[in-house]
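Protocol step 4 of 6: structure prediction from sequence.
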Amino acid sequence: MRENNVRNIWAKGGAVINGWLGIPSAVSAEAMAQAGWDSLTADLQHGLVDYQAAVGHFQAISTTQTTPFARVPWNEPGIIMKLLDAGAMGIICPMINSRAECEAFVGATRYAPQGYRSFGPTRAIWYNGADYYTHANKTVIASAMIETQKALDNLDEILSTPGLDAIYVGPADLSISLGKQPSGTPDDPVVVDAIKKICAAAKKHKVVPGIHCGSTAFAKQMIGFGFQFVTILADTALLTNAAKAAVSEMKGGTGSPAKGAGPY
C-alpha cells in the first residue's frame, strides 16, 4: 500500500501545503504537481472539473510524489466512493452541519464494519497496490468542511464523529453565514474569532484543522494559529493573477494581484 504522505506530515506535527485544481486539464494538473505541493485537490464543487477530468488529474499527479485529494460537490456517497475508487487519497466534503451528516460522510469513505463503502477500487489498486483494501480505512483521509453558523453550533458533535480525520474551513461561506462579506483572507474580528474557535476545537478532539487561503500571507498566519492543512488559492486564481501581473507590468501598472482573488 502506498503511504499517504499527508498523514506522514501530520504525524510529525507539520503543516501540509495543498494546491487546488479547478481547471479541467490533466496538463495543467501535471504542471501544478511539478511545483512540489504536498497534496493537490481536484475541486468538483466550485471548479470546472467533472469526474472524468478528476481522473486525468489523478493520473497527472501520479507522475510525482504529491498526494491526490478531491473535494466532492456535496455529501453524496456515490461520488465520494467513485473518486476514492479512482485513486483519491483524501476527500473534502462541503457543508457538513451536523453529527448525522458527518457520520454519513465518514461512512462513505470506509469499508465495513467502519463504514458502508462499496468495494470496487479499480484505479485505486493500480495506484496504491494490491493490498489497498487491507489498508484503505486507515490510509484514506475524510475531511469535513466547516463553513456555517449551524456547523459552529454543532462543532463538538461534528468533531467527535468516529473516523473523522480532519476538518476544512471554507472562509468565504463562513463569512457569509456570519453576516460578513465573503473573503479568502478574512480579517473581520467575528470571522477570525470563529476560525480560531474551529481550530482550537479540532485540536481538542484530535482532528486535524485545515483551511482555504486567499494568499500565502494568510496561509502562514493560519499555520501560526495551528492549522495543519492550508490551501493557497487555486490554479485558476494563480494563472489569472500571474497573467494580470505580467500584462500590468508591461503596460506600466503595479502588477499587483487582487487580494484574496479566486474561488473558494
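Step 5 (inspection) to follow. The mean pLDDT is 96.
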